[in-house]
What does this fold into?
Amino acid sequence: MSSAPSRSNAADPVDTALTQAVGAVLARVRAVGAANPVVLVDGRSGAGKSSLARRIVAAWPRPGRVQLVALDDLYPGWDGLADGAEYARAQVLVPHAKGLIGIWERWDWEADARAEAHAVDPALPLIVEGAGVLTAASAPLGDVTVWVDAPTGVRRRRGLDRDGDTYRPHWDRWAAQEDAHIAAHAPASLASLVIEVP
It folds into this structure.
């Protein structure tokens, strides 16, 4: 019997990076000291934004519900990165900051139209994640701002493993919009925390 650790027991570097990132984000959430802090998570496709956001919700340090809004539910189609991010700012983040109920409508990708409405309670914590969410206009509306990064090849593999043939024909088209977002807004420079996921 070998004394070497098995592969299944070996540390997963992605899991380790995300676990450390959750700790760093939640430390900043605690420092805010508010009952309804806002966390914004930006990054390119496949970097690990959604995984990080779900883990933050699961590990939230205070009792009660945490609202999670994913820009994938807001983008109006494959050319809608900028429009979806602005929709999130106007319909979700601005009302929350003003203490008002925000209303957003899910984008139905098959019907190519807005669908059912969802309310965002300004009294509850809020996490908004998605490519494009960090801009000069939206960053001040977040208490904790996060940029998630990963190597291009790894991101592509994760993104296509996740969404498969649905995403494959649109990868370059979406990446060009991410490039435009980064060039226009320098989102990493707006982040209070930059996360590197291997």
Observations:
- Helices lie at 13-32, 49-58, 81-97, 152-163, 171-185, 187-190.
- Confidence is low (pLDDT under 50) at residues 1-9.
- The longest helix spans residues 13-32.
- The chain is about 40% helix and 20% strand.
